[in-house]
Amino acid sequence: MPDTPLTYTASQRQESTGGILGNHFKFDIEALPDLSFFVQSVTLPSLTSTTVERANPFASIHEVGDHLVHSPIQVTYLIDAAFQTYRSLLWWMQGYGFPHSYDEVKEFREARAKQVPSPRARARELEKTNATLMILQPDTDKIIAEIHFIDVFPTSLGELAFATTDADAPLLTTMATFACTTFHLTF
Q1: Which of 47, 55, 158, 185 has the fewest CB atoms in 10 Å of its CB?
Q2: Distance CA 76, CA 65 (A)
Q3: How far is CA 61 from CA 47, 140, 173, 178, in A?
């Protein structure tokens, strides 16, 4: 993750005329290593700038704001045969969002503390993690760019549809939504 802001220099001449293929990527969530292999799609969050309205007797004048708002990260993934991918997200969400007792809170935080490198992790660090979307060059593992998401945590876990009416047994997929504080692009 860069410590300096992203810099950009406009090119004088376009060297690359090809596009990036949307199916050459890898998505890793630090706290959910089991999920990486089963990710089917990731939607990069939109980025919106806030604006400030300056009063004027004739019309409101929009000025540049000082905050950026990130929409959620949408991830579609396969449910593995051991149900681990679904169970891990369910455990995480129930651990921070709706425990039934103080013992459940304690167990969740102790289990997460073992995964966090900080010897004295704060509650916020136990409930959040980081994630990386790697955009790959076609037919190789060469990384073209990485998008690093900071302070990631699940906010919704999609439904699962079980049906006996399907002629072919489809693989189960679902969607998870994650919030993040910010993201950085590196090359």
Answers
A1: 55
A2: 33
A3: 22, 49, 46, 34
Binning pLDDT at 50, 70 and 90, where does residue 125 land?
low
Task: State how many domains the chain has.
Answer: 1
Distance between CA atoms of residues 115 and 135, nearest Å: 26
> Would you say residue 66 lies in a domain?
no
Least confident of 28-37, 105-114, 139-148, 174-183: 105-114
Residue at 145 is within a domain: yes
Residue 184 CA to residue 132 CA, distance in Å, equals 10
Q: What is the structure's pLDDT at 114?
A: 73
Alpha-carbon distance 134 to 59, whole Å? 45
pTM: 0.77
Can you state the angle between helices 102-113 and 84-97, rounded to 10 degrees? 120
Give the integer Cα–Cα distance in Å for 136 and 25.
5
Which of 149, 122, 143, 137 shows the shortest CA–CA distance to 32?
Answer: 149
Asked if 183 and 45 touch (Cβ cutoff 8 Å), the reply is yes
